[in-house]
Structures are given as C-alpha cells and as structure tokens.
Design goal:
This is DNA polymerase-3 subunit delta. The protein is α/β, with parallel strands linked by helices. The radius of gyration is 22 Å and the shape is globular. The two termini are 34 Å apart. The longest helix has 24 residues. Helix 11 crosses helix 14. It folds into two domains: 178 residues, Rossmann fold; 102 residues. Helix 5 links the parallel strand 3 and strand 4.
C-alpha cells in the first residue's frame, strides 16, 4: 500500500501515470471509435473484475479526449499517453483542471480509507462540471469504483446523469455492476472488460518490474485469475504463503490444527493487514464456490448443498463482522472452524 495513495497496491503504477495497458485492445478501439463518431455517450460504465486495468483504461481514454478536443478530428486509436506532455504531467500529478478522480476519501483521524464514497465527494462533481474550463476543453470525472458509493452518493450522481452538462464525460468503474442502482446502469453505456490472458498477465507484470519466481509462475497465473492486482497480492503481500497456510490447516487435525488456525488469524488480523485480510476472505469465498461446483459435477448433491450453505454462512459472518467492526481474529477463526 502506498503512503501517498492508500488504495494503491505495492508494486503498482498509479493509473493516471501508467503509460501501458495490456489485454484490452478491443475496448480501447471501441472507445476511440465511439468518441471519433461525435456521438459518444456522456457516461461510460466500465465493468470487470478488480485489478485488470479499468482505471488505467479510464485515464488513458481521458488523456485521449483532452489531447483531441474535436472528436471528428481524433485518431482511430488510443495512443500511449505521453508522460512529458502538459496533459500527461498534470494527470500524473493530479493537477489537471479537466479531470476529477473520485475515490473513497481518507479518514483524517485514522489515516485509513473510509468505508464508502460519500455524498460530499459526489457533490464535488456539481462544482467541477459547473466551472468553465479555461481551455474550453472537456471535463472528465472518474468514479473509482462506483460500487463504493453509499445510497446518498448514488442518488446525487443520478441527478447529474439525468442532466449532463455540455462537454462533460463521466467514467464509472465497477467491479460488481449489480451493486449499482438500476437507474444508474440504465443511463450509462456499458463496457465490459475481461480478465487478462497468461501472455498479457506476464507482460503487465514485467512492465511493473514484478519478478515472479519460476517455481511460482504457474501458481500465480492460475490463482490470479487474470487480475494483475491479485498477482501483486500473491507476490508482494505474501498471498502465496497465506493460501499455503490455509490449505495446511484444512489438511491438519487435532490440537495442531487449532494452533495453526490461531497463527494464521494473528497474521490476518494484524495492524495494517487490511489488504491481505481482504485477499484471504476473497480466496475462502472462491474456494467454497469451487468446492461446491466440484461436488455438484461429481453428482454429490448433498455435499454441494452443504458447501453452498456454508458459503452463505461465511458471507453473512463477514458482513456482520465488517458492519459492526467485530474482532477480526475471532471472525477468521470462526470461518476456519466452519470448514469442519
């Protein structure tokens, strides 16, 4: 996690400063063609799993629009942003008057990200779009991710979507479109991004300078599921060790299992372990779904039903723990105990 940007993973390049994007050539071509037609939508909902490049694509498209104010004269492709250009420098430093990046704000007391994008953050859009650009260029807002908006923030955004200002562009990023209000989804042009293939994953990691040990290459690519963000958690945050410890617990019985459960829970509940804690929860959820599918395909419907119910129970425990800020260690132990 970066000190300057709590939402940025160690080893990642901030999306406004990233000059390369891998695996999304079709999406880039679609956005370029849409803008060049002069009939592009005022709001684009960029969908896809976390960590696959949605924010990088959004800033890449923003740079394209600002560099080519007249859509009809714009090129038919998105070029790599020039980090030495005025637009490139301003976007990378967060000093662009034409781009507003809305994220979860940082709590001044704790220094941690707040749990949601609040209505005050979304209200900044009204002032941003209401101001006249000194250059007469487009004004572009990126909400990253829109999933994090609370109800009041979502309703405030809906009003802006209903009456978009001239020469304005809203780019909404979402990991889970179903979490958004249907009325927000219906007012956006939806663009789905898919997880990266193995070759694009390796190129993206090489671009970041992430060295994956040869012995772990296949494991990392498989477990990352086409997400560069997940690969960074596996390599830079000890995710591989966490998964190994989890599997070791499942294979151990008796008092020794209990000791290993407490040891893993201590690691995941430690201070500043939010990222690896969230990674573990995601892995457990995915593991249960995988086990349930395997049981169903093998014809063991009672076991598939048990695992499906267990998945629901685990999700409920996590939601309650997060909602009431319960002790993380005890929540993790209760989840591990649920595996029997």
């Amino acid at each position: 996690m970066s000190e300057n940007d709590p939402a940025l993973l160690d080893g990642a390049i901030p999306p406004p400063a990233n000059t390369k994007l891998f695996g999304h050539a079709q999406a880039e071509a679609f956005l370029a063609d849409s803008y060049r037609s002069g009939k592009g939508h005022h709001a684009v909902l960029i969908e896809g799993p976390e960590g696959i490049g949605k924010a990088t694509l959004a800033f890449r498209f923003a740079a394209h629009v600002l560099a080519n104010e007249n859509p009809l004269a714009a090129p038919d492709h998105l070029a790599d942003p020039d980090p030495d250009s005025i637009i490139g420098r301003q976007m990378a430093s967060g000093a662009s008057h034409n781009v507003l990046h809305i994220e979860r704000p940082v709590d001044e007391k704790s220094g941690r990200l707040k749990s949601a994008i609040t209505v005050d953050e979304v209200r900044r859009l009204g002032k941003f779009f209401g101001q006249t650009s000194g250059s007469g260029n487009w004004r572009i807002a990126i909400i990253d991710p829109a999933d994090d908006m609370n109800r009041n923030a979502a309703n405030a955004l809906l009003k802006i979507l209903e009456e978009p200002p001239k020469k304005s562009l809203l780019l909404l990023l979402t990991h889970s479109p179903g979490k958004l209000l249907p009325t927000i989804r219906s007012r956006c042009m939806r663009l789905r991004l898919e997880p990266l293939g193995a070759a694009d994953m390796e190129n993206a990691l090489a671009h970041l300078g992430v060295a994956v040990p040869a012995k772990d290459r296949e494991t990392v690519l498989s477990m990352a599921g086409g997400s560069v963000g997940e690969a960074l958690k596996l390599v830079n945050y000890g995710g591989l060790d966490i998964v190994a410890a989890f599997r070791d617990i499942l294979a151990t019985e008796g008092p020794q299992r209990r000791r290993k459960m407490h040891k893993l829970a201590d690691v995941l509940a430690a201070k500043d372990a939010d990222i690896i804690h969230a990674f573990f929860i995601g892995h457990v959820t995915e593991e249960l779904m995988h086990m349930a599918r395997g049981a169903a395909m093998a014809g063991n419907l009672p076991e598939a039903d048990r695992l499906s119910r267990l998945s629901t129970q685990v999700a409920e425990r996590i939601a309650i723990s997060q909602g009431y800020n319960l002790d993380k260690k005890q929540t993790i132990i209760s989840i591990l105990e649920a595996f029997g």
